[in-house]
């Protein structure tokens, strides 16, 4: 699982940072890419990466500000243009469907795939299948805004074949039964319980996306024990009051969340244009005083989940 | 008057060309910039030019395909963000208002300037003031599409002061009266007609914008005696049938228009991604066989009106 940052700036595009979009690449796990927000020119950014638009299976919108959604219609049209035919799910606050559907209707766009809209009226579990679940939680921005917590399901450990050697089990269905955790009776009468021969669960990962928001306790729920928290960090702690007034976070408040919630790593994004170039390292240093494993991300940065600086 | 090309590609953005947008810079004439189409990431392109978004006073949309309008909401929001307060006019086919207003409403955008929508139901004069007029004409694309003809008003010539010397006219209001074309009686009884002392009209310019279309006679009306025709040229003459099927033009058909209409110059844009890099010179050579003063334009090219290759 990897995070690739397609837009890491706040509000308006600048030469250094595009507006918001974060890709969660789950190629090994699901052969899919999920996007969190789609600011204008996200499809242009994707052109410079290895991401294939048709692999984008789910899009999670945090809130309906233009710098988080104006790239959506163009991306959807290009996904069709580039041969995407698999269905796409779009999660987000009420209104996202009207925006997308109006854009597609007015432009006479006919997509060759189906879009399913999941408009959120409240937080909670929004997706759940065999391998992953996703929870949304209401943040505290000027307009309705959701954070997301992506949770990989526990993955059953491997069958401990070495420990089974002494039983001289013939090749065949018995291994499968043991792996499924069943009780098996061998020819010599020995009973083996599969549960005793399965290794520990493989570590499953949690990724949390906290978009535009003031601090609110809901952030903690979304962030508990996360492998990576991607947290907006529009301002430094010097501008704490400004951050509060504009319903945004500081690098320090994001780091406090990561520490309190026992996260493994923190990636700061949604950086104000006032911190140009190396200026953004102020935010990183500030956060690292509270939570060491922190990075300020730049457009096109790729991070493994979890990561170590 | 200058043309600056912000997006010269067809359909979808590529690494080499962004989707459609053309700026007509009228800084000397009106201290304004007019845009023709606003594909996604036009505001990103503008970041790399000297164009100030608040100087954009009029936007002419040729048709409602996404590659010609998806940059509009973001540009409008950024224009406000960068201190634009002067009103803005948006011309285009019916539906452009719904698209823009839905985008602004859903995102809760409050602009600090007024937008006046001029939705066209037919061709004809769409704008007229002291110095310029603009005509729209219906082209032949898959959906309603307009070409535009921008006409500078004749500019009165200079007062021929040298020829007035012999009359020993005292400094003062008489010069102004003569310049205004009035009849003036001097102290010695001589009558002078201002009309006789005004030089020839200064050349006034015509710029024609022909967007996505098959050939149709309306193109000729829009293009007659133009200083510059900006003409879409998605395909080469080899792909004539493809161009026809997709309601597009070839380089050759654009050049034939320029020749027949006695234009001074032809700029080819909306280039298909199949003609990458130097490949687009095929289109230029092909057109030049018919009409010499032709260039295939690239993103960020700037041309004087008129231009000479
Ligand atoms: Zn934002
Ligand atoms: Zn087009």
Q: How would the blueprint of this fold be written?
A:
Two copies of one chain form a homodimer.
Chain A: E1 2-7, E2 21-26, H1 27-30, E3 32-36, H2 42-47, E4 56-60, H3 66-69, H4 72-81, E5 88-93, H5 96-106, E6 115-120, E7 124-128, E8 132-138, E9 146-152, H6 161-164, H7 173-179, E10 183-185, E11 191-193, E12 206-210, H8 218-223, E13 228-232, H9 240-245, H10 251-260, E14 266-269, H11 281-288, E15 294-296, E16 302-304
Parallel strand pairs in A: 3-4, 4-5, 5-6, 12-13, 13-14, 14-15
Antiparallel strand pairs in A: 1-2, 1-16, 2-3, 7-8, 8-9, 9-12, 10-11
Helix pairs in contact in A: 10-11
Describe what this molecule looks like in 3D.
Two copies of one chain form a homodimer. With 309 residues, chain A is of the alpha/beta class. Chain A folds into two domains: 2-155 and 202-304, Ribonuclease Z/Hydroxyacylglutathione hydrolase-like (Metallo-beta-lactamase, Chain A); 161-197, no CATH class. Chain A contains eleven helices and 16 strands. Chain A has helices spanning 27-30, 42-47, 66-69, 72-81, 96-106, 161-164, 173-179, 218-223, 240-245, 251-260, 281-288, and strands at residues 2-7, 21-26, 32-36, 56-60, 88-93, 115-120, 124-128, 132-138, 146-152, 183-185, 191-193, 206-210, 228-232, 266-269, 294-296, 302-304. Chain A has a seven-stranded mixed sheet with strand order 6-5-4-3-2-1-16. A seven-stranded mixed sheet of chain A has the order 7-8-9-12-13-14-15. Chain A has a two-stranded antiparallel ribbon with strand order 10-11. In chain A, a hairpin with a 5-residue loop joins strand 10 and strand 11. In chain A, helix 10 (251-260) runs parallel beside helix 11 (281-288). The interface between A and B is large, with 37 and 37 residues. The structure holds zinc ion (ZN) (2 copies). Residues 10-11, 20, 65, 67-68, 212, 270 of chain B line the site of one zinc ion.
